[in-house]
Amino acid sequence: MSEVSKDTVININDFLPHRAPMLMVDFLVEITATSVTSVFKIKEDNVFVENNYFSEVGLIENSAQTCSSIVGQTFFFTSDNEAREDVKLVGFISGIKKATVFMLPKVDDTIKTSATLVSRFDSDDYSICTMKCETFQDENLLLEAEINLFIQEVK
């Protein structure tokens, strides 16, 4: 995978409530209202590493976190793009429509996940969305998935 310029790195902590050891995204390289791309280096002490490989569950969690940052940004930022303080969210995968794992990355591999918003429903304090995503390690396709997410602000 080619190196990413520090100028293009977007702090994932601005878009997700997750923190170590459950954070499965290192940073974002791009985010819009309908698409996102994340980068994650697999480390030996990761909770989803088994026998030197990042597990299927880890790939799906990486995809879900990448996807949820698209919707998460609307909770963490105002319409004027100002950060909101002390936002608390709860979110989960409400359904996996399709997931195909082609291969597993190893410890020390860096993966890149891209996701696109397919549909979204917003209420006053929660969102339900469908996302399509793909995860690559270099040119190797690791995962293709279509997942549903539920994200709610806890007040």
Question: How do you describe this structure in short?
Answer:
With 155 residues, this protein is mostly beta strands. Helix content is 14%, strand content 45%.
Q: What does this protein look like?
A:
The protein has 155 residues and is mainly β. It has a single domain (6-153), classed as Thiol Ester Dehydrase, Chain A, CATH 3.10.129.10. Helices cover 14% and strands 45% of the residues. It contains 1 helix and 9 strands; from the N terminus they run βββββαββββ. The protein has one helix spanning 56-76; strands at 10-11, 27-31, 35-41, 49-50, 53-54, 89-101, 110-122, 126-137, 140-153. The chain has a 7-stranded antiparallel sheet with strand order 1-2-3-7-8-9-6, with helices on one face. It is globular, with a radius of gyration of 15 Å. The termini are far apart. It comes from Flavobacterium terrigena.
How would you name the CATH homologous superfamily? Answer: Hotdog Thioesterase
Distance between the termini: 41 Å
Average pLDDT reading: 86
CA-atom Rg in angstroms:
15 Å
**CATH-level-2 architecture:** Roll
- What is the global morphology? globular
Order of helices and strands: EEEEEHEEEE
**Number of helix segments?**
1
Strand content is over 45%
Give the class from helix and strand content and strand pairing.
mainly beta
Mind describing the biggest β-sheet?
A: 7 strands, antiparallel
CATH class: Alpha Beta
Q: Please indicate the count of domains.
A: 1
Q: Which blocks of ≥5 consecutive residues have pLDDT under 50?
A: 1-6
**What's the number of extended β-strand segments?**
9
CATH topology: Thiol Ester Dehydrase, Chain A
Widest sheet: strand order? Answer: 1-2-3-7-8-9-6
Protein name: 3-hydroxymyristoyl/3-hydroxydecanoyl-(Acyl carrier protein) dehydratase
InterPro entries: ApeP-like_dehydratase, HotDog_dom_sf
